[in-house]
Design goal:
69% of the residues lie in helices and 6% in strands. It contains nine helices and six strands; from the N terminus they run αααβββααβββαααα.
C-alpha cells in the first residue's frame, strides 16, 4: 500500500467514525461531537492533499481557498452578502474578526474532497459544495451559527441566497486554483464543467452524503432527506460514469 492509498483508507475510516457518531448510544459522547468530526475532517484533508497533490499544489489550494473563503465570509457576516444575514456562535472556537478561524479550513476540506470526486474543474465541484450545504446548513444553523432576517424564500430556516453564495464562493476558489496550477491551465476550457475524478473520491463524497441524509432523518427533516437523497443519487450516477471514463482514458 502506498501513501496515497493509505490516505484513502484513513478517509473511509473517518466515514466509519461519522456513522458511529450517529448511533444514539454514542452520539452524546464528546469524542463524537460535531466539532471533533470537523477537526478530524480538516486534519484528514491536509494529510491527503499534501500526499496526493504534493507540497506546491496542496499549498496553492490551501492558501487560495482559505483566503478567498475568509474574505467572502467576512463580507457575509458584516454586510449580509452573498449568503444572507448571519452570525457565528462561540461553539466554533477562536475568531479572526467576525469569522471563526476554523471556518475557512472547512471550506478547504470540503472543496478538496469535492475536487477528488469531480477531478480538476470548476462547475461540478461547486455544485457538489452546494449540495453538501443543502444537507448540512439546516442541521447546524441553530448551534454553530444563526440566521437573521434575510429577504427571499427559506429552506428549513436557511435563506435561498445562502446557496447562491456558496456556489459563487466555490466557483471563485476552483477557478483560481485551476488558473494557478500550471498543469491545469492548458485544459481549463475543456474542464470547466467536470474532468472526471477518482472512484475513491466519488465513493467518499457519496458516503459522506449518506451520513448527512441519516443526520437529517434523525433530526426530523424527512423532506430534506428525501430531496438530498435524490440529488446525491443523480450526482452519484453522473460522477461514477465520469470516473470510469477517466480510468479507461488513463489505461489507453
Amino acid at each position: 500500500m502506498n501513501k496515497g492509498q493509505a490516505t484513502w483508507v484513513l478517509s473511509y475510516a473517518f466515514l466509519a467514525y461519522v456513522f458511529l457518531s450517529e448511533v444514539p448510544q454514542l452520539s452524546g459522547l464528546s469524542v463524537f461531537s460535531v466539532q471533533a468530526a470537523f477537526v478530524l475532517l480538516v486534519v484528514l484533508y491536509l494529510a491527503s492533499s499534501f500526499v496526493n497533490w504534493g507540497v506546491e499544489k496542496a499549498s496553492i489550494f490551501l492558501f487560495a481557498s482559505w483566503l478567498i473563503s475568509y474574505a467572502i465570509e467576512y463580507t457575509g457576516v458584516t454586510t449580509g452578502y452573498p449568503f444572507g444575514s448571519y452570525a457565528y456562535t462561540s461553539a466554533m472556537g477562536s475568531f479572526v474578526g467576525p469569522v471563526p478561524v476554523f471556518i475557512p479550513f472547512l471550506w478547504c476540506a470540503l472543496g478538496y474532497f469535492c475536487l477528488q470526486a469531480t477531478g480538476p474543474s470548476m462547475v461540478a465541484p461547486a455544485m457538489l459544495m452546494v449540495l453538501l450545504d443543502l444537507s448540512l446548513d439546516p442541521l447546524f444553523s441553530q448551534s454553530l451559527w444563526h440566521w437573521q432576517s434575510t429577504a427571499g424564500p427559506y429552506y428549513y430556516g436557511v435563506p435561498a441566497l445562502n446557496f447562491v453564495g456558496w456556489f459563487v464562493t466555490a466557483i471563485l476558489i476552483f477557478t483560481f486554483f485551476m488558473l494557478a496550477v500550471r498543469e491545469y491551465r492548458s485544459g481549463i476550457k475543456a474542464n470547466i464543467l467536470v474532468s472526471g475524478g477518482s472512484a475513491a473520491g466519488v465513493g467518499f463524497y457519496l458516503l459522506f452524503g449518506v451520513t448527512t441524509i441519516l443526520y437529517q432523518l434523525y433530526s426530523g427533516l424527512a423532506g430534506g432527506a428525501a430531496l438530498t437523497s435524490v440529488l446525491y443519487a443523480v450526482a452519484g450516477v453522473y460522477l461514477w460514469n465520469k470516473a470510469k471514463q477517466r480510468a479507461v482514458n488513463y489505461a489507453l
